Amino acid sequence: MTRSFRSFRFVGGLMACFLAGASVQAESPAFNPNFHYFIGGQVVGERGFILGDPANWSIELIDLAGHSANKKVKVQPENYQGKNDALHIVWSKAKMNGQIALYGPPINLAAVRDQATLVFDVKVERKPTQDVTLAMDCGWPCRGSFNAANVLRKFPKGEWRYFSLPLNCIRGENYDPSKINGVFLMATEGALELSVANIRIERLAEGEKGCVD
Predict the structure, then answer these.
(1) How many helices (H) and strands (E) does the chain have?
(2) Which segment of 4-8, 22-26, 50-54 scores lowest on mean pLDDT?
(3) Residue 162 falls within a domain, yes or no?
(4) What is the rounded distance in angstroms from the CA atom of residue 80 to the CA atom of residue 121?
(5) In terms of Cα–Cα distance, which of 101, 104, 88 is closest to 180?
(6) Average confidence score pLDDT of the chain
């Protein structure tokens, strides 16, 4: 799957839209860390992937590989459009919550909440057996989330697909999109196996409004 990224950047305090080709490398200045998070196998900006389960919620992912303390979640690099440009993630059958998250300095997404969507490329190998939390964190207990299980179950196994979650569909009682420090979090208590690549923010397609009340 090859797509062009419909992304955002801020110029002189005003939001401007631009197109960035999918072939551009993560270190390119075209990739703004406010809107591009994991591109071409590279984390954009001062962020890092963290794995967690009840034994320890803060195990750092090293060179795109690792496992949580109780091995509920295991991760290794995978080839997608290039070498090691995706994450292969497996949640075991063990009856506990496990998560992978990408954390860094807080960013403000409030201005684009009704205009943008969190997107990533995903390949489902084993469909979820329980709910799957897809979330953004804003300093615990501040979190907005969405149950992605039904969407993932509809994807055919073994095929790369485009997952789009409008930012205004991410909700929580104390959620504050103006101070996002966890730009991507996926968690489940069930079994699940999938691969993820190119996590970023894109403009909503013309005519789409997301989850506007």
Answers:
(1) 1, 16
(2) 22-26
(3) yes
(4) 10
(5) 104
(6) 88
Tell whether pTM > 0.85.
Answer: yes
Residue 174 lies in a domain: yes
Task: Return the SS3 of 111.
Answer: helix
Residue 123 contacts residue 158 (beta carbons within 8 Å): yes
* Cis, bond preceding 141 (omega within 30 deg of 0): yes
Task: Determine, yes or no, domain membership for 104.
Answer: yes
Tell me the H-state helices in the chain: 149-154
Q: How many domains does the chain have?
A: 1
> 2 pLDDT exceeds 60?
no
With CA atoms as reference, report the closest residue to 181 among 111, 117, 101.
101
Is the confidence at residue 136, as pLDDT, over 90? yes
pLDDT of residue 4: 45
Identify whether 110 is part of a domain: yes
